[in-house]
Input
Amino acid sequence: MYRGRIEKDFNIWVSKGMLDAKAASMMLAEYDARETVFSAGRVLLVLAAVLLSAAILLLVAANWEAIPRVLRVTGIVGLIWAFYLAAAFCLGRSFRGLGAALLVLATMTFGGAIALVGQMYHLSGDAADALLVWFAASCVAAVAFRSAALSVLCGFLAWAVFGQLVVENDASFEGNGYVYLIPLLIVIVIALVRYTNAGIARHLAYLLALAWLGWFYIELPEVWFAFLLFGAGLVAFLAVSLPISPIYRFAREAGAAPAFYSFALAVMGLAALHTEADGLGQEVGIGATTLAVALGGIAIAGRLNGAVRFLGYAVFAAETLYLASETLGSILGTSGFFLISGVVVALIAWLVIRLEKRLSVRTATEGSVS
Output
């Protein structure tokens, strides 16, 4: 998608004489040569590796009793080492796609081997323990091979650990001590993202952080914790979005994700406050705060961050309709509510159009000055 947009922009700039055709071609060639560029072939190779690992493990499991115990363990370990060595060979010969697929195949086989060996020797422990071991081994392999594909797999395994911990204990605090390890797993995944340049995996980490905090609020539905979520999200958003912040440059290097997910955390905190509101007065106060935060987010980061801008629009529209339904809609009835909703949506559309024009003019002005 991004590649198509820049190619379209280059063609427009070339046709207007703003960019040389040879320079545009060279820039596109340089972009296509990057290892981080999406490749359908590499994705299919990784999917094939996942399917092959599942087929191998199912084949072994189907004939488990017919294979001597020593041979079973030796075969599994040998298979894992064979895949890792083959991956190292392919990576050394610059076969990046095949090497990444073999790394995924080896690591998936390792995870299946944990389950099969544990069942064979009747080892104690639960699924969360096995997933943590699998996560740790995947992290070691990701660092050793500096593999972006394995970093993505680590992100999914961190989600699997969190899901298993919640399911095992019926989403309760009791007996769920491992769930406090989730922030550590998030930090590890983000570190792997920066080390291996695996851009997509950072979204898995940020989403897991939001999910963990959301689960925490479900377990501890207190007003102070809702305020804490809102305050932490707002402070983090300002820290990564305002140029005067000491971490602004570092956040910009990480792309649009830090500002968007911190803004989403603030919105989540406001949603939690809505559930804690008691009476129309508190709902209107929280609603007004939500509208102000939505517009403030658009004004601060919306010009350069499309994700924040669209989330701000969505929050502003949803909150406006909610306030209309809770106040005027409840007084005027269903037909009156739909009339008010139509007027509100029209006003929101007008406001969005004005903001978009203002932001585009500001961007064009700064571009001409620079």
About this structure: The two ends are 27 Å apart (CA to CA). Residues 1-32 form one domain. Residues 39 and 97 are 9 Å apart (CA to CA).
